[in-house]
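Quick one, T. Sequence first:
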Amino acid sequence: MIQRFDVGPRMSEMAVYKGTIYLAGQVADDVTQDIAGQTRQVLAMVDTLLARAGSDKSKILMAQIFLVDLADFDGMNVVWDAWVSNGHTPPRATVQAQLAKPGWKIEMVVTAAV
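Structure tokens:
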């Protein structure tokens, strides 16, 4: 059975199927923040969603990170490195992308185990 969370007319915020959690792309609410601030916001959202599904960041299977400007890569990594579970760093890809709304500097898509 597929379990969906925060279902809207266009998308769900999260789906869980056969012990795997799929998050929608997470973006910052406060776009006035720099890359560090937006990254912290996104990672807090990931923490919250994973907790709702009975999981946590140590169970992330894959993270996909989209940055508007690759010059923000180092700033994002400082926050990521402080957040990620030591010994449980997941596979990850980071690419440059144009995001859907102005002001967004980062979007993150996470897949995790329950």
